C-alpha cells in the first residue's frame, strides 16, 4: 500500500512539473506574441540612416536569440528581443542560414530577417568569364570578398598542376584524357556560380566548374563524334576552342575561324594564332595584363615555347584559356570552307575578312590595313 502511495505521489509530482514547463513555454510564446504586437511599428524602423554596407556573419548553430544580440551589438537593429520574437512567432527560426551577409543599419528589421532567411543571400556570386586563363581566375578569386588570398592561391596551385586533392576524380572521367601532367586549363567551365559565403574554399569553385563541364561538354562532344563531325580528341577540341575563344570577337564568326584553323591543321600548315604567343609571353608587369597587346610580328620568333604556333606546327600542348560552349561548338561543328587566312578589320567592329590564298590575304591586308 505504501509503495502504491509513493508511486502515485511521484506521478503527481511529474504531472505538476510537466504542467509548469508547458505553462512556462506558453508564457514565453504568448509573451513574444504580445511583445511583437505591441511593437509592430518598430519592425519598419531602421536602426539609423547609415547606408554603409556591413558584413555580418552567422555562425553555424547560432540561435535566433544569439543572432539578434549580435545584430544589436553591431548597430544593425535596435531591439534584439523584438528580432527574436518576430522570427519565432513567424516560424522563421529554422530558416535562418549560416553564412556571411551584406547588411546595412538603414535596413529595417523585416528586411534584415528576409535576407537572413534567404539561402541565396548566404551565398557568394562568383563569375569566371570565357577566355580567362587560370591565373586570371585565381587573381579574381583571391579578392578578400571572395575566397581570399590563401584559398585563391590554393585554387591556382591545384588548377595549374592538375591536382585533384579534395575532389572526387571518379566524377570527372573526362580528365583521364588529358596528357600526363596537364593542368586543368580549358576544363574549368566559365560561368557564374553560387558558393557558400561562410568559409568559402578553392574546392567549392573547382568542383562547381568541373561539375558544369561534366554536364555540358562531354555530351556535346560525344554527339559530334557520333555524327562524324569531328575526329579530334576532347583535349584537342578544347585546345582549339580556347584559341577560337581568344581570337573571335563576333560570336557568329566563331565557326568560320574554327574552320580556318582546321583547314590549316589538315594540310600541316602552322596555325599562326596570335593568342598562343600571348599565352606563352605570360604576365606583363608593365601593363598588369596577361594578354599582351599589341604583338608585333618581330616578337613572334623570339618566343620559344611549344605554345607558339608561329614556330611550331600543329596544336599547342593544351588549352590557353577557358573556352565557352559557343567556341567548343564552333570547333565541333565548324563552317566548311576553303579559307586559310583572315585579318581583323581596323574599324573596331571585331569582324574579320577571310581569304583562300596568301595572295588574297596580302591584298586584304593592303586594302584594309594600308600596308
From TrEMBL:
Main enzyme class:
lyase
Q: Which Pfam families match?
A: YceG
UniProt entry tagged with the keyword Repeat: no
Q: What CDD domains does this protein's entry cite?
A: MltG_like (cd08010)
Q: Does the keyword Chaperone apply?
A: no
Task: Select a single GO molecular function from the record's annotations and give it.
Answer: lytic endotransglycosylase activity
One GO biological process term: cell wall organization
Q: Which family does it belong to?
A: Belongs to the transglycosylase MltG family.
PANTHER family, per the entry: ENDOLYTIC MUREIN TRANSGLYCOSYLASE
Subcellular locations according to the entry = Cell membrane
Q: Which UniProt keywords apply?
A: Cell membrane, Cell wall biogenesis/degradation, Lyase, Membrane, Transmembrane, Transmembrane helix
Supply the gene name. mltG
Looking up NCBIfam families in the UniProt record yields: endolytic transglycosylase MltG (TIGR00247)
UniProt EC number: 4.2.2.29
Point out the annotated site residues (description: Important for catalytic activity).
247
What membrane topology is given? Single-pass membrane protein
This protein's GO cellular component annotations are:
plasma membrane
Q: What does the record give as the function of this protein?
A: Functions as a peptidoglycan terminase that cleaves nascent peptidoglycan strands endolytically to terminate their elongation.
How is this protein named in the record?
Endolytic murein transglycosylase
Q: Which reaction does it catalyse?
A: a peptidoglycan chain = a peptidoglycan chain with N-acetyl-1,6-anhydromuramyl-[peptide] at the reducing end + a peptidoglycan chain with N-acetylglucosamine at the non-reducing end
Q: Which residues cross the membrane?
A: 12-30
